[in-house]
Write a structure and sequence with these properties.
By secondary structure, this protein is an alpha/beta fold. The protein has a single domain, classed as TIM Barrel, CATH 3.20.20.70. 33% of the residues lie in helices and 19% in strands. It has 10 helices and 14 strands. Strands 3-4-7-8-9-10-13-14 form an 8-stranded parallel barrel, surrounded by 6 helices. Helix 3 runs parallel beside helix 5 and helix 7 packs parallel to helix 8. It is globular and about 55 Å long. The structure holds flavin mononucleotide.
């Protein structure tokens, strides 16, 4: 065998491979399109979209940590109207699945943005009910199963395309949150968003991030994310899209074995803009070397003996 089938099926969408650019780490693809052909990707989840444009939080918004990073970008984006008019037509030329990541401050916001996206040509909608860096919506939304179910149900009525709900890891039971999304009609769940973190400068004694708290991501969170993907995948019948600290092809395989149908890669793009093509190439090699003919056969195939 000298070639493996890397394709996966996600909610009726055929993805060339399971590797999707994670929201907020790939913008709308334009900068990366100058570096490589984006049609090699499984998909792109765009930066979180809100009804009105947002400038995001004041600096400092990003800092490196040992084995990860903290960010409090605060959902900087041009707003849904500019996305629909100017950004999406360009993204549609990339030849890969386009996932609109949306955020809001209320159940109504999510329902309204989802309605605006219906019929727009996006392939999927990802509800970000788990951003730790905005002061309304965001984490408080994503930590209450009753609210998860309600916001999902309202958005589902409008969506028209598969709806994926992105869960926060800042909860006691990820299984209960995944079940609530499924109950509300989600077609898939994606996890994890970032953990809420903080950093303090020991010399100046000031908060490193102006927003004080920030989202923690990168390789350090991977074992926590794998555990949560495993628990979520066992709790629900809908597909799970896994992420959190993926840096290598072997990490992708690990998430799939834990139960992920597809994966998203975030922080790795900020460390190396070629991270995604390198991971996709490596997945092909991993499959050939290990006699895996179809990558999708790995989903949930962890051995527990
Ligand atoms: C700078 C930055 C911005 C992000 N913005 C968003 C966002 O707008 N919407 C969202 O759902 N997730 C956002 N995330 C979370 C990532 O999509 C991903 O869930 C998280 O970083 C874990 O994956 P990773 O360890 O591979 O980065 C952001 C992450 C980073 C690092």
């Amino acid at each position: 065998m000298d070639h493996a089938d890397l394709s996966v099926e996600l909610c009726g969408l055929h993805l060339k491979n399971p590797v999707i650019a994670a929201s907020g780490t790939f913008g709308f693809g334009a900068e990366y399109a100058k570096l490589y052909d984006l049609s090699i990707l499984g998909g792109i989840s765009c930066k979180g979209l809100t009804l009105a444009p947002r400038e995001g939080n004041p600096p400092t918004r990003l800092t490196g940590t040992a084995y990860g990073m903290l960010n409090a970008v605060g959902l900087q984006n041009p707003g849904i109207e500019v996305f629909l008019q100017d950004v999406l037509p360009v993204m549609k030329t990339y030849g890969t699945a386009i996932i609109a990541n949306v955020a809001g401050s209320s159940v109504e916001d999510y329902a309204e943005i989802t309605a605006k996206l219906a019929g727009s040509g996006v392939d999927m909608i990802e509800l970000n009910i788990s951003c730790p860096n905005v002061h309304a919506g965001g984490v408080p939304f994503g930590t209450d199963p009753a609210v998860i179910e309600e916001v999902t149900r309202r958005a589902r009525q409008n969506a028209g395309v598969p709806l994926m709900v992105k869960l926060t890891p800042n909860v006691t039971s990820i299984a209960d949150c995944a079940k609530a999304a499924e109950q509300g009609g989600a077609d898939a769940v994606s996890l994890i968003n970032t953990f809420t973190g903080m950093a303090i400068d020991p010399v100046t004694r000031r908060m490193v991030i102006k927003n004080k708290t920030a989202g923690y991501s990168g390789p350090a969170v991977k074992p926590l994310a794998v555990r949560m993907v495993y628990q979520a995948a066992r709790a629900v019948g809908i597909p799970v899209v896994g992420m959190g600290g993926i840096m290598t092809p072997a990490d992708v395989v690990e998430f799939m074995l834990a139960g992920a149908t597809a994966v998203m890669v975030g922080t790795a793009n900020l460390l190396d803009p070629f991270a995604l093509p390198i991971i996709i190439d490596g997945l092909q090699r991993f499959c050939v070397e290990n006699g895996i003919e179809t990558l999708r056969s790995l989903t949930g195939a962890v051995r527990e003996d």
